[in-house]
Amino acid sequence: MPHAIRKLAGMLVTLVIASFIIFAAMYAAPGDPVTFLIGNPENMTPERIASVRAQYHLDQPLLAQYWHWASGVLTGNFGESFKYHQPVADIMAARVPTTLSLVAYAALLLTVFGIGLGVVAAVRRRTAVDSLIVSGTTLAASIPSFVLGIALVALFSVQLRWFPVAGIGGGGFGDRLFHLTLPALTLAITALAIVSRVTRQTMIEQFTSEHVEAARATGLRERFIVRDHVLRNAWGPIITMVALVIASMIAGTVAVETVFGLSGVGSLLVDAINTHDFPVVQAVLLFMVVAYMVVTTVVDLLLPILDPRISGKVAAR
Questions:
Q1: In this predicted model, what pLDDT tens digit does every residue of 192-214 receive, in sequence order?
Q2: Angle made by CA atoms 175, 177, 178, in degrees to the nearest 5
């Protein structure tokens, strides 16, 4: 319990610091928000400018503006969009499900194929299969996600016509899953090398441990050794890396959603930056930070349960 309290307290402090940096970055961005709010240069009268500054608290010091924004965030009020003139919370609520669905689908693909390829490479270490998996996943990871997305669209959507070019689909769960397949593959493929390589390396280290040698000496079959003695003891680093990659995928949706025309948080961020919609930019960046922190913190708290050896280390600190 003390470890959980320390983690949550650290998460809260990090969130406060991150939120201030996000707000200050928007404050220091080039251009005056009043210009975008008023729009028509003919309306740029001193009275109008003063009215807009007072309405959006732009006439107050930075810390006062931050406190007003942060106190609103705590109640679910992220301000009003400069472009859409709607509450940012409503805009985010309409976009978040698409992004979470995409990340969840990609996370499933990443976990299954990333760990699977890593296990095969470890079992077939120092063979042609091992070299092929390592080189193939490394090559895939070196391709930028937007380039890979365009290539997948050109091949599977335009040439073969197996998948739709863009959009989320208007049907039920199956139709949504069908439309998200190529975007999810794009997200997952670029991260396969990290997970598969960590899985491979961690398992190879376990293969040389004493308990594995003892299991072999008893005549236990190799598949049971891999399952019960190698993979089970390698779960800690593997799960940690999978969690870190999944948490970072939310930021990766920026390029993928733009390529595939998905109305998610990532494409919303790109649109908000291009139109200087500062309240939306702040909300999206804060959402990404919170999502990353929640995923990594939850995994850190669950690891001692999944691996009892870690709980002993945590208790000793």
A1: 888 998 888 888 888 877 777 77
A2: 65
